[in-house]
Amino acid sequence: MNSLNTEAFTLFGQHILWSDMIGNVLGLIALALGWRRNLWSWPVQFASGLILFGAFYGHLTGSAGKQAVVMVVAVYGWWQWNRNKGESSDGHIAPRFATWRERGALVGAAAVGTVAVALLFKAYPTLSWDPWPDAYIFVGTVVAMYAQARGMVEFWFAWLLVDLVGVPLNFANGYAFSGFVYVIYGALVLWGMRDWWLRSRESARPVMEGAPA
User: What is the DSSP string of 150-192?
Assistant: First the structure.
């Protein structure tokens, strides 16, 4: 893993690490596979988390911890999608909008989780140099991945909110490639959101009597 933490190249004056680059490219691939509702999204996400854990460990402990949680949620997501595949006509999970109760639970969990994690980071300064935005990204990522695992269209909105803070934070931390990839995430999220939105409407549309299923 030490060799992965060496510099790959310099881009616009920013030093790009191999681990930062490979981990985030895998994360980008995982998001693209998630857009296509492909089960392989989760193993690729797990691999991304593993590499980024090695990149952050010992330098940004809070970010490393986030990647550990990401790996756990990736295992849950793989189990959930494998269990529910075949819901739609194309053999994949069927996207849906969350209920208002589920939305309230997601927002509440994000708010309480962000405060709790930020206070933890403030109590142990070695975990994060900037507790509040780091906690926001930490919790937001977990909430987004959980919503994705449940097939909720809202997970794309959660990713957009994470991106708004993740881009400047990664540049400030010296992880320039993460920042560049987060910009690409933003565009991919918009496309994926549109696709899931349309598919969720198709899934909710009632079948006409006498029409083929």
Answer: TTBTHHHHHHHHHHHHHHHHHHHTT-HHHHHHHHHHHHHHHHH
